[in-house]
Write a structure and sequence with these properties.
- The strands form six sheets. Strands 7-10-14-15-16 form a five-stranded antiparallel sheet, with no helix packed on it.
- The protein is built from no helices and 18 strands.
- A hairpin with a 5-residue loop joins β3 and β4.
- By secondary structure, it is mainly β.
- The termini are close together.
- Helix content is 0%, strand content 30%.
Length: 280
């Protein structure tokens, strides 16, 4: 609901905020305004809109910095409590990325890269005013196991419903696959690249890409200097070549970690939650 008032040019201007004096002569912000209808029933005609508040680490983008009711979104990067006004919201969740496969004490077959976290989009959720818990899935820790280990689940509990996005698991169990393991002893011993993401938040071309599989490790041989597989953009970590160097998935993308011989597989990237609202 909105209230409009005429300006000096007799044009209707939307009221952004309403205040009223209290007993101490101080202005207090009005949250809601009701007016009686023809049947003497109170009808809601105005609801104040406050931007979301979050207890964790976040970044907020507003369509109009002077008026949050004109739309925007908040990116929640760590777990915390989200406080929302009454309104209609869209949610986008990314789970934590899987680690790369690792072989800290051996060469030979190059372990695969980790899959990126799963993604979940929910639109047009009617929200009542309140505080809602947000849990951001962690990327899987670096691992000595050849099979990439699973990242953590991201979740938001809102309106009595738990909305989730699972973490990536293994090389292929996620939104985008990591580079496959390489056991080729005679041909291409380089690591296979992770799958690049084509998934944007809310499938909106103006929003960033998320995810990306980790690169696989090169087949390790003393007689061959293999090159690690590239991480899938934007968040996948590079797989290790024969130098053992590898990269973790990028934080808050859900990217998978790179695989490695003679080293642990790299960690996956943490997930995130984006909450978006349109003009109220």
């Amino acid at each position: 609901m909105a209230i409009f008032i005429g300006d000096a040019n007799n044009k209707a201007q939307k009221v952004k905020k309403l205040f009223i004096g209290n007993a101490a002569g101080k202005a207090q912000k009005i949250k809601k305004v009701f007016i009686g209808d023809a049947n003497s029933k109170a009808q809601l005609v105005y609801t104040a809109f406050d931007p979301p508040a979050f207890t964790g680490t976040y970044v907020m983008t507003l369509n109009d910095t002077s008026d949050p009711s004109k739309g925007g979104y908040i990116v929640c990067k760590t777990s915390g409590t989200l406080t929302l006004c009454e309104g209609i919201y869209d949610l986008f969740l990314v789970g934590g990325g899987a680690s790369g496969g690792g072989k800290p004490n051996a060469g030979g077959t190059g372990p695969g890269g980790g899959a990126s976290g799963y993604m979940q989009t929910r639109k047009q959720i009617a929200v009542t005013p309140g505080s809602y818990p947000v849990a951001i899935g962690s990327g899987a820790a670096e691992s000595s196991k050849q099979t990439p280990q699973a990242g953590g689940q991201t979740s938001v509990t809102i309106g009595g419903e738990i909305i989730t996005a699972d973490g990536g698991s293994g090389t292929t169990g996620g939104s985008f696959a990591g580079g496959a393991a390489n056991n080729d002893t005679t041909g291409n011993r380089n690591g296979f690249p992770g799958t690049a993401s084509n998934k944007r938040a809310f499938d909106d071309a103006s929003m960033p890409l998320y995810g990306g599989g980790g690169g696989g490790a090169a087949y390790y041989s003393n007689g061959y200097r293999g090159v690690g597989g590239a991480g899938g953009s934007p968040g996948g970590g590079r797989g290790a070549g024969n130098d053992g160097s590898r990269a973790a998935g990028v934080a808050n993308t859900g990217g998978g970690g790179g695989g490695a011989c003679w080293a642990n597989g790299a960690a996956g990237g943490s997930g995130l939650v984006i909450v978006r609202w349109a003009a109220q």
